[in-house]
Design a protein that fits this description.
Elements: E1 3-12, E2 28-38, E3 47-57, E4 66-70, H1 73-105
Antiparallel strand pairs: 1-2, 2-3, 3-4
Amino acid sequence: MTTRTRNNIVVFKHPFLLKGVDRVLPAGGYRVVTDEELIDGLSFSAYRRVSTMIFVPAQSHQASSIEMVTVDPSDLQAAQERDAATQQSLGAMSLVRRMRIRVAALPSFSGEYGLVGDNHDGSNHRA
């Protein structure tokens, strides 16, 4: 049976959890290897995924140690989606924070700024 191996780098912008790994993995780029085998008997080339592995930092204390963990592609996809959602949530929170700062820096809406009343003739109506 003919097989092929695909290598990809998957980037996580935030620490993440992955089924099959019993610890939080740090943000960063991770090598993912997918082995596929040719489906025989078809009039065109088609491959079936046989296994997917991700290389993660080993739990040992040596910085250069890595381990290869077999992972379900749907679990890997779910982890990537959670990472993207976290990025969107943080972006939205950052936007809200910036808006709050801008609003807090605005002058109060009172007559002294000419927004309500203060038409310099003693009247108190909108200009």
